[in-house]
Amino acid sequence: MTAQPHRITVIPGDGVGPEVVRSAQRIIAAAGVAIDWEEAEAGAEVFRRGDTSGVPRATRESIERTRVVLKGPLETPVGFGEKSANVTLRKLFETYANVRPARELPGVPTRYAGEGVDMIIVRENIEDLYAGIEHMQTPDVGQCLKVISRKGSEKIIRYAFELARREGRRKVTCATKANIMKLTEGLFKRVFEELAGEYPEIAPEHLIIDNVAHQMAKNPAQFDVVVTTNLNGDIISDLASGLVGGLGFAPSGNYGDDVAIFEAVHGSAPKYAGKDVINPTALILSSLMMLRHVGESGAADRIEDAVLVTLEEGRAVTQDLARQTGGDVEHAASTTGFTDSIIANLGKQPTTVPPRAGTERPSGPAAPRPRWSYGPEVAAAVPRTTVGVDVFLETWEPVAAAGPALEALAGDALRLQMISSRGTMVWPSTGLKPDAVGLLRARYVARAEGAAASDADISALVARIGERYAWTHLEKLHVFAGADGFTKAQGQ
Ligand code: NAP
Asked: Residue 128: left (phi > 0), alpha (psi -120 to 50), or beta?
């Protein structure tokens, strides 16, 4: 029993949300943990009232007070341009670490049963393509910016190593596409390699993300902690959930320096809403991550044991699991009945489940101990030269004509180095003939070898190009501390 109740914001959410959240709340109360729940709203009803963020001010204020949230799934209306309320919550409170354990559970049949799958996917939760910076370059060409920072990478990679250390885990796998995206995924990989040296007791490993998918399907028990960028993490964490029983059993925690948000991976499953049939295990397991985060590890262990005993017994089985096991779906346990069974099993120990790896359980983020310094002075001290500019322009003109025309516009200070279409060089001709899509990139560099391209030169160039072509955006070509801050085109 805790002396002082914990204050926690609870967002019941949409669809089946209130049912699974209620189940977790009942179990926590039965385990004797005193919590002052501050109930708050977000999601569908809030959007319907015209709040385009889906997260009202009162909810934000509650989270600022309590700094811990248990949350049901939220629906985001499709087609009105609204941003997801889930993503808004994660970003508002900078919960940069999305942690998704995937562990084999008793009584939950999978292709890998008995192999001891027990991994944690640590996904960067703020950056990457999920920064949501998208632009149509032409009526028919969209573009999404992939933003990866050294600081964002350091935070999540350090988080993963600290988590591995706390849990006594032996290996951290970094999953990237660094072979293709050298400046973004490659930065993430380089930061991983540099930080790994600070954790000598943990084996670092880097795998290309597609191989991670392959290895997970073939031999998932080889993985321990996996750290990865946002989009990669989104996909492989769902894959990992699928390996151990699927959405009904997949918990998650979103950790920031100040706020942590705990939620099931699944959505609002609207067709089951209000029917008392949904499997609440995922939200219950998420609530255990929450209890450990607030220092209630003893209660979390007792509840976890009761969940495992209930699954092991197989007497109270929700309909999703009954379907998977070929059991009696007609007489499957209700959400309430399954919850009652877990409560009845509090105090019992599972008999078939091996103890977890390590002695400690996931908790809040590690105290930040940055390896690098960040900030305007540090950035300003990096020697840099702007050596040219990429000008993206909308045109269907054949490059045989566009090339000489764009070269003629280069002026005295700059020269046209090449033109590419969707990243493949098309001028000067390499013999490759990629399909045209109406958008070209013209790369201009300083005429004199090693010279800088001034803003005045670039502005004058863009003005000249603008008289003949519709340019859509510009990217300066920087060299930072002697290293090119841009990649070559395919075929260049
Ligand atoms: P979903 O709600 O996760 O449901 C898809 C299917 O997964 C369900 O029909 C059901 O499969 C199964 N399922 C989900 N939760 C389950 C559980 N607890 N126990 C057993 N089976 C479960 O995905 P969706 O239909 O794509 O999304 C519905 C809404 O939720 C959307 O508005 C979406 O934006 C939102 N969403 C929110 C979150 C979040 O808040 N974090 C996450 C994802 C989606 P069967 O039909 O086979 O029974």
From this structure: left
